[in-house]
């Protein structure tokens, strides 16, 4: 390092030291960079925000690219907040830097500069390298001041910041990807996002010219969050090809309260505030609009949920048909987690004959695995997912779509595929983009919601939680499908599962809450609930349960 660099470094660190005193860390407070960033009650997060601004600058210097910072706590209650970092291609920040994030967030006030210095040394970061960070935030009341703290962090390390204000999480990921591909992926503006996705959507539905107004009509539950706001902004770009009735717009109700994708998935019932008619197509976003689930109620008043598994099946079936029709040699894979309904996995493997992979919970794991296919469709059952097209797959599709010597049938398949690529937010799962994709797939194939639902029948399933003294006593393997510790737990689960038909169960420590999660499925809802309860009891007994014993669901 030259003397000049040392002087710059010292001046910057002095500024960081001065500014960080305005964002003091409560002594002793330790937070975890969980499955998807830091998440806790908003009052505890000011110092974390400031420090993530600092870390984003370092990450940007290291990668020589623009980095994203999103302030959100997704589907958590309104009082919570959170933050996550976004890497150059719009993907989740790489695991080594999650570790750094924890070190920086948890350093006591006087140790902060040392921790930053150590990271710079370990990563050989050049202090003179420029840095740029994009910031987005959701609509929580705490998000504005918290994103201001992020900005303070960025500026105190002399980074360049672009604050987009309120954005959906996937929009922020999109902006970062556009910026770092020199706009080849799209323009890094909300208008660029609306234009790219809606143009592709409008092109796709041209292949379904006779749609009735009824078929164009969709009810959307915006979870009283940012998704509702952004959907309203996007509507004019859709040229009336989708007619949206928007509920839970955030004008009266509370964010995520008895509404939104997570609520609907876990309750397996409709959200509050949506006026559904029999058979009508409805969907729910979560609080930051990176998840979506579909549903309807039938003439007997029964609720039907079409979750991430059903969305993955719909999309991969569509893609497989098109790839075959186009005569392209592209391998399609579907990536799921242990939460995927057993029926969906069986249908994909046995009927659709596509490769299915199971990975750990959390988008970063799914995204990574999906990159190994020419076309990788990944979805969590909770509605978080997207499709990744490899660069060479996109090239082959584009070439065929332009090839004047090919047959009309092949060309048309390639053109539909090309627009499918463009309607998809490949940076990350995106409720708005997934919604447009599902709507287009249904339209192009002339499928009703009921026909989609009938592709396979979900096995009854149940998710429960058990409180234990220390959730880390449970460790897992085989994509979280088997428990390695504590001793005897997996044997107990195996013995219970054997007592039911078509059954499966697993336990795993939550990555976002201080709890153990239990999942069970079996041939009937009654058996599923009974299995889930017995597994909860086994966890309670063998993994140090605290508080009241788990109660059977009546
Ligand atoms: C986060 C993850 C989600 C995962 C969930 C699991 C992202 C963007 N979000 O919300 O994918 O399903 O955590 O939570 O990765 P759990 O570990 O508490 O069950
Ligand atoms: Mg979310």
TrEMBL record:
Keywords: Acetylation, Carbohydrate metabolism, Isomerase, Magnesium, Metal-binding, Phosphoprotein. Mg(2+) binds at residues 74, 286, 288, 290. Residues 192-293, 307-445 form the Phosphoacetylglucosamine mutase AMG1 domain. Binds 1 Mg(2+) ion per subunit. Pathway: Nucleotide-sugar biosynthesis; UDP-N-acetyl-alpha-D-glucosamine biosynthesis; N-acetyl-alpha-D-glucosamine 1-phosphate from alpha-D-glucosamine 6-phosphate (route I): step 2/2. Residues 61-108, 115-179 form the Alpha-D-phosphohexomutase alpha/beta/alpha domain. It catalyses: N-acetyl-alpha-D-glucosamine 1-phosphate = N-acetyl-D-glucosamine 6-phosphate. The active site is at residue 74. GO terms for molecular function: magnesium ion binding; phosphoacetylglucosamine mutase activity. Its cofactor is Mg(2+). One of its GO terms (biological process) is hemopoiesis. Its EC number is 5.4.2.3. Residues 486-536 form the Alpha-D-phosphohexomutase C-terminal domain. Substrate binds at residues 380-382, 508-512, 517. Coiled coil: none annotated. Catalyzes the conversion of GlcNAc-6-P into GlcNAc-1-P during the synthesis of uridine diphosphate/UDP-GlcNAc, a sugar nucleotide critical to multiple glycosylation pathways including protein N- and O-glycosylation. Belongs to the phosphohexose mutase family. This is Phosphoacetylglucosamine mutase. The lineage of its organism: Eukaryota, Metazoa, Chordata, Craniata, Vertebrata.
